Amino acid sequence: MHDSDPPAISSACIDARRRPGRGALGNDAGRFDLARTEEADGWDIPEDRPVFRTEISLEHPRSLITYNRSPDLPFDRSINPYRGCEHGCIYCFARPSHAYLGLSPGLDFETRLIARPTAPDVLERELSRKGYRVAPIAIGTNTDPYQPCESQHEITRNCLKVLAAFRHPVAIVTKGALIERDIDILAPMAAQGLARVGISLTTLDPELSRRMEPRLPAPGRRLATIRALSGAGIPVRLMTSPIIPGLTDPEIEALLQAGAQAGASSASWVMLRLPREVSPLWQAWLAEHCPDRAGKIMARLREMHGGRDYDARWGHRMRGEGKHAELIAQRFHVHARKRGLHQKAPPLRCDLFAVPPRKGDQLSLW
What we know:
Elements: E1 55-58, E2 66-67, E3 77-79, E4 82-83, H1 107-111, E5 112-115, H2 119-127, E6 137-139, H3 150-153, H4 155-166, E7 170-174, H5 183-191, E8 195-200, H6 206-212, H7 219-231, E9 236-243, H8 252-262, E10 266-271, H9 278-289, H10 294-304, H11 323-338
Parallel strand pairs: 1-5, 3-6, 6-7, 7-8, 8-9, 9-10
Antiparallel strand pairs: 2-3, 4-5
């Protein structure tokens, strides 16, 4: 099996009565777990069982900034305040990362979260090192920094306070309306050329969004967030991601129009990606929610990836290839230009970075 091939689709499925508000239908063990468990335990008397509640554990990381050398990404470093994501987007490419924790990329990914409360302190320490070389930090590239638990833990907000104090450039990706809370930090940073935000919008259909992204703000609410941020002078990129051929690709033009009207200044897109455990989770979701289109959707995706569910090669994984992928790219380019969303955002400033003085530091005489 190739390292990007997904496991076989599981026939096990969690009782639908236990998973309202959740995206995944099952909770198969991660690929590193030798033991496989099933929900059924032989008890054959019907009984009411509780719905799955969100559990949050705490982690105290020794390091926070993660570096990458991927040519597909416009940044070389990122931070993640949380592991797992309660938004429960069934298509989330980050689900396989939960397997490294000994947890399932299925329901565990959206119900068993890990918060990192000391992340701001670790970030401050890393930025203060003499050898640190400044470049934009990305937040939200794996799991959403503004998922519901952020309202309680405020880890993202406290990390932004550190970045603001250091005058460090930051690019945020989110689907959460909670980011509006932090306009008081982001607006002054944006005025200095230090901050920009990407808001992901996959569909304008609230019913489809609720089924596919069960705990996300509705599409209209995310458009309101774009208006609030752009109105505060914060550059916003509309991210029509992921585009799902045969399901959401008919909305490309409408999404771009809605984003432009809301105040977005640029736009981008990524094709649906199905790495590792995401593929069986996605196919199980399709079978339940879109049985009439499941075959067509998967056929289109495989056409874009050389007959496989996913091709992880750099330069291919974000867009796919073939006639249908080219058509989607052309449609996006034409209509982004028409709406004035085709230009790249100016680079964030790195020349303002400075380690702030700490209590007890000797002040300069000049």
